[in-house]
Prior knowledge:
Layout: E1 3-7, H1 11-23, E2 27-31, H2 34-43, E3 48-51, H3 60-70, E4 76-80, H4 85-94, E5 98-101, H5 106-123, E6 127-130, E7 133-136, E8 141-144, E9 147-149, H6 153-164, H7 172-179, H8 189-201, H9 218-223, H10 226-251, H11 255-303, H12 322-369, H13 376-407, E10 416-419, H14 420-429, H15 432-437, E11 441-445, E12 451-454, H16 456-472, E13 479-487, E14 490-497, H17 504-509, H18 529-539, E15 543-549, E16 553-564
Parallel strand pairs: 1-2, 1-3, 3-4, 4-5, 11-13
Antiparallel strand pairs: 6-7, 7-8, 8-9, 10-12, 12-16, 13-14, 14-16, 15-16
Helix pairs in contact: 1-12, 10-11, 11-12, 12-13, 13-18, 14-16, 16-18
Amino acid sequence: MFKILVVEDDRELNRAVCAFLGRNGYEAVGCLCAEEAYDALYETVFDLIISDIMMPGTDGFEFARTVREQNTELPILFMTARDDLTAKQRGFSAGADDYMVKPVDLDELLLRIGALLRRAKIASSKRLTAGSLLLDADEHTAYLSGAEVPLTVREFDLLYKLLSYPKKTFTRAQLMEEFWEMETSSGPRTVDVYITKLRDKFSACPDFEIVTVHGAGRFPRYLFSATKFLIFFALIAFVVTCSFLLFLDSMRLDPDILRENALLTFLNILLLSALFTVIDGIRRRLTVERPVRRIRAATQRIIQGDFSVRIEPLHGPERADAFDAIIEDFNQMARELSGVETLRTDFIANVSHELKTPLAVIQNYGSLLQDPALPKEQRVEYAKAVTDASRRLADLIANILKLNKLENQQIFPQAETYDLGEQLRECLLGFEDAWEAKELAVEADIPDGVAVRTDRELLTLVWNNLFSNAVKFTDAGGSIHVSLRHTGTQAEVCVTDTGCGMSPETGRHIFEKFYQGDSSHATQGNGLGLALVRRVVDIVGGEIAVKSTLGKGSTFSVVLRAETNETP
């Protein structure tokens, strides 16, 4: 039986996929994060990995790269909500063999799994022979007449590539792009060095020959320009001729002597013209064309969506020239585009992930519920999972709509004066069932008579989100403390919990849309609640801050303008 590792941070979707695979003859093991998957891979030999991309902690890209460093043949299938081209490029570059976008069709998933397993079986015995030469892709070794020939990884890959396509001509640029990518320290002549090493190591093998095909006249065309030659010829001929005539006129020489030296003078002019043409070609290559090629290559990578590209300056600050200024402007442009593209891509990816994951849960469990032989207990369990995913999806859509209206100023605060303490107690009591189920100790220090003039409905969103997070992220048996303090013209609300807390890095981004700490996915958050809170607090003219210690808890404080000490 084939063993499949399913790495998916959404617990319900993970269970649904594992259950489906188990019903179709596979042994599936589910992990909620990459760290759990590493432990599973250490303990068990798997035949295939199905992994999400957007996971807490280590994401799917880094997970795939790590797996590939240890095992080059284990099939990896990405099953993710991200359907943008950039994500697909990063996925395949990281080592993925296939890519599916949520929600996936389970029958198609089975077909792809079967195809990957078949290809893996074929690749596991992949060998290439050329007469007495044997290249073993499994061992990454070469044997000549039964004796191993020591090769570096790059030498083996290069030789395997050439022998896989006999009689095909590869340019230096093609080989550089495939095996050296964009290494700035390597030039085209690096290929020649490796080819020379391979010729030396296999000089005794008569079964194949690596032939270099030289381009006709490449060097003269590159360094010698007919137009430049004519320009230099004309300039030199004019200067030399004028100087020569003035000199001879002063010397009063015999015309016969002039005719005897005319040919020699003309040849000298031709020689000097050709020499200056070549020197100018070399100068142009080093000072103009080389930096232009670097800029063009980097520009092409920008066009292809790679905004991480940077160009090293040609000179130090004390010797900077116009090209260095252009390169600095290019790098600044790349950094700006990278930031914009990251925000855009992350927003789209996060929206897609949060929408498609509950859809995938609904679809997968819906498929399982169609089995007439399904036991009643499992049917009830699966139906509950569908209901929970539907509710989660509805909440997400509602929050997206609310946040969009707030950000586009489509909601205008309706100010009224009311008792803030009374509102806090009402919102807190709405979570009584939740904190009792987790046996949390809830303390409230909320006095009467603290009035504020603001939008009651909008602030209800704030308190409900803060209380919900406090209950959600506090372990069973923990405690929550809510306090209201009136200081002069300000009212401060503090919500403190003894939950998981957050790192300083998470604390800096916690109010950003779709940003989630490591534990958010485990409890099915969507990363919008605190973004809504921040936007509402800004609209009503308040301030919000957070203090947190990882593993010990968090305190959210909201400061509002207080109207009076008296209850309205």
